[in-house]
Amino acid sequence: MKILTLTEESKTDILENLLKRSPNSYGKFESQVAEIIENVRAKKDAALFDYTRRFDGADISADTILVTDAEIKEAYENVDAKLLEVIKKALVNIRTYHEKQRQYSWFDSEENGILLGQKVTPLQRVGVYVPGGKAVYPSSVLMNVMPAKVAGVDEIIMTTPPGKDGKICASTLVAAKEAGVDRIYKVGGAQAIAALAFGTESIPKVDKIVGPGNIYVALAKKAVFGHVSIDSIAGPSEILVLADETANPRFVAADLLSQAEHDEMASAILVTTSKTLAEEVSKEIDAFVKQLSRKEIIQKSLDQYGYILVAKDDAEAIQTANEIASEHLEIVMKNPYEVMTKIRNAGAIFLGEYSSEPLGDYFAGPNHVLPTNGTAKFFSPLSVDDFIKKSSIISYSKEALEPVYKDIVQFAECEQLTAHANSIKVRFED
Amino acid sequence: MKILTLTEESKTDILENLLKRSPNSYGKFESQVAEIIENVRAKKDAALFDYTRRFDGADISADTILVTDAEIKEAYENVDAKLLEVIKKALVNIRTYHEKQRQYSWFDSEENGILLGQKVTPLQRVGVYVPGGKAVYPSSVLMNVMPAKVAGVDEIIMTTPPGKDGKICASTLVAAKEAGVDRIYKVGGAQAIAALAFGTESIPKVDKIVGPGNIYVALAKKAVFGHVSIDSIAGPSEILVLADETANPRFVAADLLSQAEHDEMASAILVTTSKTLAEEVSKEIDAFVKQLSRKEIIQKSLDQYGYILVAKDDAEAIQTANEIASEHLEIVMKNPYEVMTKIRNAGAIFLGEYSSEPLGDYFAGPNHVLPTNGTAKFFSPLSVDDFIKKSSIISYSKEALEPVYKDIVQFAECEQLTAHANSIKVRFED
């Protein structure tokens, strides 16, 4: 793998190249997605069944769209027993971590009768989208469902495209059941998002839609935003490893490749202050790639969006990591905690040489749904926060309002909102 | 004002009527907005100056787009001294309330060397949009800026359309300065949103855009979502008063009108179990409207989106409030706190007869930027939460990883992600 020396110029080029992967640049699919949404809004179930026939080659009806208890039982019989065991272990960790994210209603009061606060309420009904297709990721089901469950959402429904045989893969069903999904519908694509946003005869309207998907799903989520809430729009996966001369090049190389294998648009970047490490990692990568089952994907991803960058010092390396704002950031340096204090932008930060990124994907407990493509500058990992909302609480006694009521009237009159002023004045008119 | 008895049927009609006000239904402006955004992205400042000439009739250049210290000084000389005093008082309350919303980084550790947590980081640069035009709302400046300030955002920039004379109104400038805005640019509309999202020669790209605006601004915010973060899309204002026979009809009527005056699309709804109160409030409204300066707006708003609804019992009244999910909810009943426990959906909840809605608009401290149009089902008031983001922290020692590494490998292999499995295996290959 090629090694670059970091300069302001090379950095600008790299940032531009990475942003090409943005799911926000696919305007050409927008009108197609808009048409699907309009159709589902108008024709509801009929449109869903029609699209499922066309896009998934499956015959689904009002009688078969909902996964039955018998189908779930069958899935448990067919699923790999070892996988089920690991799912159960992972779920304990995921639940435990997310329980620590819980937020609570609070208030503060003064003795004159002022009470102010915030009431925290879970969302009522949430839709989780699970992609079908070639790759099936039960871990993704766990990560999308568990924060909603911990938040106390009343009803979690899932949609996922059926295979041509009208079935859903066993590991998806088992993961959904273990995580606590209430109902599963056999529908995918933009049509599933439209159904969740507006409701059909079979599928109830939800308050929020989460979960990854292809470009149609991403654009549909963006289009229905405002009618419902959505999670952040997922882009291709990324890893950035910040490493110095103390890092094990074999570990670093393996970790970079673990993200590169996700998809041709994935990005794997090493930023190091050690020229020697850069060279060793490059060699290890070349050796590993040959042995890995997904080598074609990995090679394309590395060619397009993989970089080994040599920085002149820690400060430059850290600044580059902050500018790229990677989904996953590993810090494999002498003093990882000290470096971490300087990190502003990253989805998840992995510290030290045994905190390999796949540990976070599957097992440790923190969510693997993370902001991609530079959006870690303003988005957060999927969390319990995504499944609650807050209401302000305002309570004033007469005693509390009286000394300030003229100020409020003054403010309202300055804004020429006389009915606002009136609603305060009437309370003291006698 | 007309009084309706609440039935399932009337409720469905009302909910449908209210949703007509959704800013998500204005598809026809979308292509216009898309064109403005593309132009600003391509031609940057030149496009901004051109649109400002066309839409605002003002000549702005690279030399004059940024509000100068001299202009701010002049604003202080021209602003109403009493308004400035009230702004300062309100700011103390707004700051105090928002400081209680602060979230903190946390971690939890186990003695085998596992450390998991979340790092909370403020956003780096935020853009606040402030509408120009007829109505000027310094309170809106305070409410949009203060949570960002309390969150610790490094740089808060504001954009607002200039008048034909190229000037910004004094009260906006003074409110911005008092709240702690770092820089103010004279540009409005979709072009301002595009500039904040993508940057121009004059205006730097921000991480998040907040603030209300007309339909062009709302659609532009939606279009750039993903490139930057945005607050929820603001619709027309709303109030719902839940009242029983103990309520003062004059207070209730005045409070309903305080929202109806905002705009013809605003909605004011009374839901009461008392037929007598319904009739008294109706009479008070008719009497008040005649005296109020914004009577034309109020009358149109009441005719289209105003309702007095009589419910058969508290449960039906409360359920209706939850289904409408109003921006502002007043509870004027014998036991407001008990009723509040049953409220799931509302932007801000005002308790008791002295907690008039304008108290919250201007003074009490909680934010007046609230979810509208039913979105209180899933969105929250603007808060410090909007200006921070989180990163997961994951640290495992060798001792911690060793007993579980085979589980992780198992999970990765079930998902056929062999490079993921490899990155765990290499750590234990000897």
TrEMBL record, chains A, B:
Catalytic residue positions: E327, H328
EC number: 1.1.1.23
Enzyme class: oxidoreductase
Residues annotated for Zn(2+) binding in this entry: Q259, H262, D361, H420
Oxidoreductase found in the keyword field: yes
Residues holding substrate: S237, Q259, H262, H328, D361, E415, H420
Gene3D superfamilies: 1.20.5.1300, Nitrogenase molybdenum iron protein domain
Keywords: Amino-acid biosynthesis, Histidine biosynthesis, Metal-binding, NAD, Oxidoreductase, Zinc
Origin superkingdom: Bacteria
Family annotation (CDD domains): Histidinol_dh (cd06572)
Cofactor note: Binds 1 zinc ion per subunit.
Necessary cofactors: Zn(2+)
Protein's pathway: Amino-acid biosynthesis; L-histidine biosynthesis; L-histidine from 5-phospho-alpha-D-ribose 1-diphosphate: step 9/9
Residues noted as binding NAD(+) in the record, renumbered to the chain: Y129, Q191, N214
Keyword Transport: no
Single GO MF annotation: histidinol dehydrogenase activity
Function: Catalyzes the sequential NAD-dependent oxidations of L-histidinol to L-histidinaldehyde and then to L-histidine.
Family: Belongs to the histidinol dehydrogenase family.
Protein name in UniProt: Histidinol dehydrogenase
Gene (name only): hisD
